[in-house]
Structures are given as structure tokens and as C-alpha cells.
Amino acid sequence: MRHLKAGRKLGMDTSHRLAVLRNMVTSLIEHERITTTDTRAKELRRIADKMVTLGKRGDLHARRLAMRVIREKRIAKKLFEEIAPRFAQKNGGYTRIIKIGRRHGDNAPMSLIEFSVPAPSPEGKKKAAAKEKKAEKKAKA
């Protein structure tokens, strides 16, 4: 019986599964959205949310723990400096899974996994800066 045994095996041995999930987390952080099967997305969500939590902590120990999983300094830097600050006011639920249908080859259920708070677009930054400037003028007047 599998009582109290969390996680899915995904049809792989342990080292293969961990390597696949590490690569998927790295890709998710790099591209901020990836397409994969439903079960892999559900497993990936667990690890990705932990990485964002480490990013929110931001101390040296958190960086070292994150580097155990991420393995690319450039991607870890993006996690700590760009992605984690977006979730400063949020206490979980950093990723969302959107079901997108079935894969043509083997009819496997596919999903899109992405961060729940989108990256600010360059246009959005300009609008926010303009809004902030307007608010400052109003406060001075």
C-alpha cells in the first residue's frame, strides 16, 4: 500500500525523475511558461513553488538551496531578482496549470504551466511610471 507516500513516480527511476524535474523548473523560470503533460505539470508545480519561496527569502542559504535544483546561475539570478519580487505580497499559488487538450501522438493530456503573476511588459512599466509621476505632482500641489 502507498499510504502517506507523496509524489508521483512518472514511470522513471529516481535519478531520472529528479533530473527531468530540475530541467523543467529551470525551463519554467527561464521562459515563465512551458507546455507539458498534466501529471508532470502537477509535480513541477510543487518544486517551482518552493523555488519561488526560496527566492522570496533571498538570503545566501536560500540561494544555495535553490542552486541545488536550478544549476544555472543566470536562471537563479532571474528567480531571485525578477520573479520572486513579483510575489512579495502573495503567500502561495505562484503557478497555475491550464489544461490545453491532448497530444496528437499518444493522446496524453497536456497542460500549460506558468507563473500566476505575469511579467510586467515594457508598456506597462511606462504606464506605471507615468501614473506614479502624476501622483507625485498631485501630492505636491
| Beta-strand residue percentage | 5-15%
Total domain modules? 1
* Rg from alpha-carbon coordinates: 18 Å
Proportion in helices: 55-70%
CATH architecture descriptor text? Alpha-Beta Complex
Q: Strands across the major sheet, in which order?
A: 1-3-2
Discrete helix count: 5
Overall structural class, as computed from helix and strand content, comes to alpha+beta
Oligomer: single chain
What would you note in describing this structure?
With 141 residues, the chain is α+β, with helices and mostly antiparallel strands. It has a single domain (14-140), classed as Ribosomal protein L17 (50s Ribosomal Protein L17, Chain: A, Alpha-Beta Complex), CATH 3.90.1030.10. The protein has five helices and three strands. The protein has a three-stranded antiparallel beta sheet with strand order 1-3-2. A hairpin with a 6-residue loop joins strand 2 and strand 3 (109-115). The longest helix is centred in the middle third of the chain and has 20 residues, at 38-57. It is globular. The protein starts with 13 loop residues before the first helix and ends with a helix. The model has no long low-confidence stretch (mean pLDDT 92).
Secondary-structure topology with pairs:
Layout: H1 14-31, E1 33-37, H2 38-57, H3 60-70, H4 73-86, E2 95-102, E3 109-115, H5 122-140
Antiparallel strand pairs: 1-3, 2-3
Helix pairs in contact: 1-2, 2-3, 2-4, 3-4
At a glance:
This protein has one domain (14-140): Ribosomal protein L17 (50s Ribosomal Protein L17, Chain: A).
